[in-house]
Each structure stands twice: as structure tokens, then as C-alpha cells.
Design a protein that fits this description.
It is built from 7 helices and 11 strands. It has 292 residues and is α/β, with parallel strands linked by helices. Helix 1 runs parallel beside helix 2 and helix 5 packs parallel to helix 7. The N terminus is likely disordered.
């Protein structure tokens, strides 16, 4: 079901709804969304960092054997796809009886997911299922019965469920656009069809990264994001030239996140294969022109 609000608010809502113990597990992937969730959680109680990719400079997800899961935690939180460095969980994981809470904002509807393994899933529409202004939230029914006495009515997931997500006036235009996107997704073969398309799109760019030393992708292969392909060129000057020449070919927004620089090609569902093929062609030509 859909509700209004920002993704940041969703992490606070889960704290307010599901938090019942003094400890809970949290997987921190980056100083971005996971770190923001950690900061909010510490206002409510103790935080147990299950794993952190900082030690690997955000190039991989630590082996599960090294994770520090707390079996008595209220829940385990993680972000399925990290967009700054381009790190993605390629499969779901088990946490015993501890509910798993996941922010899927940047890879929602891009791949098959076993929803039954999660306690809560949320995803902002603006990446893969529409425009900003609407967030998809999936909550396991048994978790709707928990709430703090201080929880405002307008932040209570159960109230939203009981009111068919119509407690307040919904963002009708954003929901309408999401409907059109879902219909388009079905016409492509549903999530299964979209996943195959996304595999081909990302593999096309990663093959170029793996073909030589001109383009360097930092993330290790098993953890590469299909949505965000991040890489560097030999010099920052070449990166600026790459971005400028790409813009001349009508390929824009290729600059990496402002906190890390480099190049970032975001291959969300709406990016057609033709667009990725144009980028791949440009990358090969640019490499040939500037390789020493």
C-alpha cells in the first residue's frame, strides 16, 4: 500500500512502531541512509552494528560469518542497494525470529524478492516506480500490533492500513503515475522480465570496466549494483571531459555523487537498453581516444 512521506521518515516510523527491546541489529552499508537510520535509532536505545563496509572502503559486503547478529534484537535493518559507491545485496538473508526491515528505495521492482522474508519493506517511488511524493510500504500483519503510546495517529501504520491508506488526502497524481509505471512493467514481463533486462544493461557496462585498466570500478564483482555503476577514469581532468562530452551527446547526470566524485551511471528501470548501448559505445570511443 502507498503512503506519503519521505524515506527518512520511514526509518523513524519503524523505530516508533516495532521497537520493543533495548537492543536491535542494524547493518550499516554507508554513511548515507543506513548511517542516518543508526543516528535516529540511538535516540531510542542501543544500536548493534551487524556489519559495516567502511573497512573495505565500501567495495564489498562482509561475509555473513563475520556478522554480529543479535538474536534478541527488535529487528535488523539494512539498505538493499547503496547508490553512492554502487554496492548491492544480491540475495536475501535469514535472521532467525528477528524481523528484517529493509529500505529498497533504489532497487525496488528491479529484481525478484521473497517478500515473506521481511517484516517491513519501504521504497520511495522516485527511482523505479513513479515520481516523488509517494512511498510504497509493505508491513507484516503481526508487526502492526506494536506501537508506542506516544505514536501520533498520523504516523501509525495500523491506522493507515485500517483506513486503506486514506487517512489523509493521498497524492493522487503520484499514485496515478505509479499505476502507469506498474502497467508498463507488466507489459515487459513483470518483475522477472525487468530483472533480465537489468542484468543485461548492467553487464554491458561492467564488461567494459573489466576489459582493461582505463575505467576502474571499485566494487568487487559479487556485490556490484545493477542500478548504479560507479567507476573512475585515470585522472579527474579526464572525468570532467568524459562528463562534458557525454552531455554533448545528450547523456547527462553521469557525475558521481558529490561526496566521492568519479562517474556514476544510474540504470534504473526506466533507462532503456538503447540508452545503455549509447553509453557503452561512447565509453569505448572515449577510451580509444585517450588511452596511452
Amino acid at each position: 500500500w502507498k503512503r506519503r512521506g519521505q524515506i527518512f521518515l520511514c526509518s523513524v516510523l519503524v523505530l516508533d512502531r516495532v521497537f520493543v527491546d533495548t537492543d536491535f541489529g542494524m547493518s550499516s552499508l554507508h554513511r548515507g541512509w543506513s548511517q542516518k537510520a543508526v543516528e535516529e535509532a540511538r535516540k531510542y536505545g542501543n544500536v548493534n552494528i551487524v556489519c559495516d563496509t567502511k573497512d573495505s572502503k565500501y567495495t564489498e559486503i562482509p561475509p555473513k560469518e563475520s556478522w554480529k547478529l543479535n538474536p534478541d534484537a527488535s529487528y535488523v535493518y539494512y539498505c538493499a542497494n547503496e547508490t553512492v559507491y554502487g554496492v548491492e545485496f544480491q540475495e536475501e538473508f535469514e535472521a532467525g525470529d528477528v524481523p528484517i526491515v529493509c529500505d529498497m528505495s533504489s532497487n525496488f521492482l528491479s529484481r525478484k524478492v521473497d517478500v515473506s522474508k521481511f517484516g517491513v519493506i519501504w521504497a520511495g517511488a522516485q527511482k523505479n516506480s513513479g515520481i516523488s511524493g509517494v512511498t510504497v510500504v509493505i508491513v507484516r500483519n503481526d508487526l502492526l500490533s506494536y506501537q508506542m503510546k506516544e505514536t501520533p495517529t498520523s504516523l501509525d501504520y495500523k491506522v493507515f492500513k485500517d483506513n486503506n491508506s486514506l487517512l489523509n488526502t493521498p497524492p493522487t497524481f503520484s499514485i496515478y503515475i505509479a499505476q502507469l509505471v506498474y502497467q508498463w512493467l507488466v507489459s515487459l514481463g513483470g518483475i522477472e522480465g525487468m530483472e533480465e533486462i537489468n542484468k543485461k544493461k548492467s553487464e554491458l557496462i561492467y564488461q567494459i570496466l573489466d576489459s582493461g585498466d582505463f575505467y576502474k570500478g571499485g566494487v568487487k564483482k559479487p556485490f556490484r549494483s545493477r542500478m548504479n555503476v560507479v567507476f573512475r577514469l585515470p585522472t579527474e581532468a579526464l572525468e570532467k571531459q568524459f562528463i562534458s562530452e557525454a552531455a554533448e551527446r545528450k547523456m547527462i547526470e553521469l557525475a558521481g555523487h558529490r561526496s566521492v566524485g568519479g562517474i556514476r551511471a544510474s540504470l534504473y528501470n526506466a533507462m532503456p537498453m538503447e540508452g545503455v548501448e549509447c553509453l557503452a559505445k561512447f565509453m569505448r570511443e572515449f577510451q580509444q581516444k585517450h588511452s596511452q
